[in-house]
Amino acid sequence: MTTHTTTVTQTEAPPSFFDSATYIPPDAIFALTAEYNTDTSPNKVNLGQGTYRDENGQPWVLPSVQKSREILLTQGLNHEYLPILGLQSFRDNATLMALGPDLYEKVQSRLSTCQALSGTGSLHTAGLLLRSCHSPPPKIYIPSPTWSNHHQVFSSLGFPCESFTYYDSSHKDLNIESYISALKTATPGSVVILHACAHNPTGCDPTKQQWIQLGQIIKERGLFPLFDAAYLGFNSGNVDDDAFAIRYFVGELGLEVAVCLSFAKNMGLYGERTGCLFLVTRSKETAVNAQSTLEMLQRSEVSNPPAYGAKIAATILSSRELKDLWYKDLETMSGRIRAMRVALYNSLNDYGAPGNWDHLVRQSGMFGFLGLEPDVVLKLKEEYHIYMAGNSRVSIAGLNETNVEYVARSIAECLKGY
Ligand SMILES: Cc1ncc(COP(=O)(O)O)c(C=O)c1O
Fold first, then answer.
1. N or C: which end of the chain has fewer CB within 10 A?
2. Which among 32, 118, 142, 262 is the best mutation to test ligand 1's pocket, defined by most ligand atoms within 8 Å of the CB?
3. Which domains does the chain have, with CATH numbers?
4. Interval 38-71: pLDDT, tens
C-alpha cells in the first residue's frame, strides 16, 4: 500500500508585478488643500488651489449655472451616454465662444472638435493626437514658470519637453526679450504651449502688441501653437478680450492651432470636468481626418465624456438670456478678484511690508505671484495658518474683506522678521 505525503515547500513570495513602481510624492497643491482642511485654526486662509470663492470664502454656484440646472431639470435629465466626441451643441457653442461668430463662420469647415475632461483632459487629448500624427513625437516648449501639470501631462505621453523663460523674476514682470529669443531659436516643427490669458502662476500676459509679435515669430519659425485656455472670460470679465491671441493667430495669421478649453473656472464647473479641444486645420479634409482620429483616441481612453457639465454649459451658451447672465457672472468673479488684488496691495503697503508690491497690481487673472522666499511661505503656513503654493503663488479668490488685512499684516510681519 502506498501512502501519499504532502510536502509544503516554503517559497519566497513571488515578486509583485509592480515592483518597478517608484514612490511619487502627492501633488503639492492637492496635498496643501488636504493639509488646510485638517487645520483647526479659526484664522486659517486657503490661498493655494485656484478655485473661486465668494466674499464669504464659500464656493460659488454661478447664477447662470443655477438657472441652467433648473432648465435641465424641468426638461427632464436622463443619464444616457453622450456620443464619443461629446455633446454636439456643447462642442459647437464652446468653439463659437472662443472664436467669436465671424471667425467661427469663416473657419467652420476646417474645425475638429472633441469634448474632453476639462482643461487637463483637453491637453492630454491634444497630446494623444499630436503623438499619433508624429513619430517621433515633436518637442514641446513650455513657458517657465507654468501650471504645475504641464510637464507631467506631456512627458507622461513621451514628449520631450523643454522649458523657456518668459518671466523676469528680478522685476517680477514679463521678459519679452527672453520669450522672443526662445521662439526664434526653437526647433521648427515643435509645439509651443501658450497660456491664452491669465498666465498661471505669474499673471503676466503679453500685451496685444506683444502677442502680434510672438505670433509672427511662431509663424515664421514653423512652430505649432497649442493654446491652454483655462481662463477665457474669467481673466478680464470679457471673453472677447481674453480670446485675443487665439483669434489673432487664426484670423490674422492663418495659423493652424489647437485650443484646450476649460469651463472649470469661468463657469465654476470644476468637478464636472467640462472641457473641449478644438483644432483649426489647414483644410476640410484634414479636419475630418483629425476629428476621426480624435474619436478613436477618445473611444479607447474614456469611451465618451461626462454629460452633466456639458449640458449645463451648452444650455448657457446657446441661450441669449443665459449667456448675458453668464457675462454678468464673469464680471462679478473677475471684478471681485481685481478688488481683492488692490486691497492686498494697499494693505501690504499700509503695514509697511518691505519691498515693492507694484507687480501685484500689474498681474491679472486668478493668481498673485508674490515673489516670497520658501522659508517665508513655510512660516506663513506654520505660524499664521496661511496656505499658498510653494512658489508663493496666491489664489486671490481666497481673499475677502474679512481676511485680506490679516494676510497682509502676516506677510509684513514675516518679512520684517518678527
Ligand atoms: C493653466 C491651466 N491649465 C489647465 C488647467 C486645468 O484645469 P481643469 O483640468 O480643472 O480644467 C489649469 C487649472 O488650474 C490651469 O491653471
1. N
2. 262
3. 28-60+333-416 (3.90.1150.10), 81-318 (3.40.640.10)
4. 999 999 999 999 999 999 999 999 999 999 999 9
